[in-house]
Q: What sequence folds into this?
């Protein structure tokens, strides 16, 4: 029971961060204010600069697309594990891969946010990682 509660709580920071990131990114597509460079000149340059990989898109559209897909991935992890934690916790704990995927990905987010992002995703990821890990340890014993 405690392990299940820890897993449910572990999903909450991911759901909050993923939702905020998606909303900010979608707003940035129309009016850049959140997850964008401070320099409007750089934003305009991103909008006119094609990628070396292909001329089919520019750096701005790639930036927005990467951020949207990142948000969706974080939300999918949160929603998926919330569902498993609430509806199929025995199944989740019976499979070592399913049990340790959420803690493992949360720790990857901790490392990424520490080195490449900023403090809010770091703290949220750390909370999720600790809660998922504690839940997985308790479920394993």
A:
């Amino acid at each position: 029971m405690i392990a299940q509660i820890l897993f449910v709580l572990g999903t909450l920071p991911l759901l909050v961060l993923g939702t905020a990131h998606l909303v900010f990114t979608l707003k940035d597509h129309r009016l850049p204010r959140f997850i964008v460079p401070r320099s409007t000149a750089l934003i305009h340059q991103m909008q006119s600069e094609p990628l070396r990989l292909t001329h089919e898109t520019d750096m701005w559209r790639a930036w927005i697309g990467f951020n949207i897909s990142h948000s969706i991935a974080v939300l999918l992890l949160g929603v998926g594990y919330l569902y498993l934690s609430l509806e199929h916790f025995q199944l989740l704990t019976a499979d070592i891969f399913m049990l340790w995927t959420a803690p493992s990905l949360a720790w990857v987010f901790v490392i990424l946010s520490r080195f490449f992002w900023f403090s809010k995703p770091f703290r949220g990821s750390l909370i999720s990682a600790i809660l998922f890990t504690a839940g997985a340890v308790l479920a394993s014993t």
Summary: The mean pLDDT is 96.
